[in-house]
Design goal:
296 residues; alpha+beta; 4-stranded mixed β-sheet; 10 helices; 10 strands
Length: 296
């Protein structure tokens, strides 16, 4: 709030401040970005009131600041965004990622589904079938001599990038997924240039969300009893999230009473879910820890 009191709010508007929060410019406060963004309107109003008081001459008899106690700003108790949301907003504000990469949110899935990371492709022999995960950073569509559409797609992960060549049929089947701005799993065959540079002759591309849903057999929720006794409304919020994500995947609930015992049970069929972003991000935001949900 002290920082906002020093700004010229006629030049720096709310939209600029929101972008600064999203890209991490206020991370030095050690407050979650979601909390800062939600509390921004109140913080700006408070800062503008303080500036107005100073401008109107509310000072002490001896020229110092008036001894009028200012109420301490209370940020809303909302915690942080899930990693995928945090990075998405970061890219929205900057045009690129600086504090992480979206593929990191799928680390355990990528470890199971991919044959290697992109930087390891240099060690893979030509004509080998590979599966790699990443984000599309560049895409160029051209027409073949026969008039068919094909594309050259650059895929990147945390440590590297690789060009993927999609001929007409794979491109027709994958172009929607590749244009979705979501992490994808590309399957294809390795090709090496004269200088050994890896290239993938792509056969297919699937979103990691789709891959995760296909490979998940069960959703395990692990909580401590205290997490519900401190905030009883969490139970109804959790129920609403499960009902809104109705699907085929069974849900197992594991409750722990600190220093005592575990209780585990499978929820009824009416609580079977689709393990998608809405469900996982919702539970993570509600309980503010990523390990509350484990997919098996």
């Amino acid at each position: 709030e002290g920082c906002l009191e020093k700004l010229d709010h006629k030049r720096i508007n709310k939209k600029v401040l929101e972008s600064l929060v999203k890209c991490g410019a206020f991370d030095w406060t050690d407050k979650p970005r979601q909390q800062l963004l939600k509390g921004l309107p109140g913080a700006v109003s408070s800062a503008q009131r303080t500036q107005a008081d100073r401008a109107s001459g509310q000072t002490s008899l001896f020229g110092g600041k008036a001894a009028v106690p200012q109420p301490r700003l209370r940020l809303p108790d909302v915690g942080e965004w899930p990693l995928s949301t945090k990075l998405s907003k970061e890219r929205e504000a900057l045009g690129f990622f600086i504090t992480g990469h979206p593929v990191e949110a799928y680390a355990s899935l990528v470890e199971r589904a991919a044959t290697c990371s992109i930087d390891e492709l240099v060690h893979v022999r030509a004509d080998t079938n590979v599966r790699v995960a990443g984000m599309v950073s560049a895409m160029r569509q051209i027409k073949t001599r026969r008039g068919d559409a094909m594309a050259f797609v650059t895929l990147e992960d945390v440590l590297g990038s690789v060009e993927c060549v999609f001929f007409s049929e794979p491109w027709a089947n994958s172009r929607e997924v590749l244009g979705s701005d979501q992490p994808v799993l590309v399957q294809g065959k390795m090709e090496k240039g004269a200088d050994g540079t890896p290239k993938i002759l792509a056969e297919s591309a699937r979103s990691l969300v789709e891959v995760r849903e296909q490979q998940t057999r069960a959703v395990h929720l692990t909580f401590e009893i205290d997490e519900f006794s401190v905030r009883p409304e969490r139970l109804s919020s959790l129920k609403a999230l499960l009902v809104a994500s109705r699907g085929r995947c069974p849900v197992f609930l594991h409750l722990r009473r600190p220093g005592h015992s575990w209780t585990s049970l499978e929820l009824g069929q009416e609580y079977r879910v689709v393990p998608d972003e809405a469900l996982l991000d919702g539970i993570e935001s509600l309980f503010r820890r990523p390990d509350a949900v484990v997919l098996a």
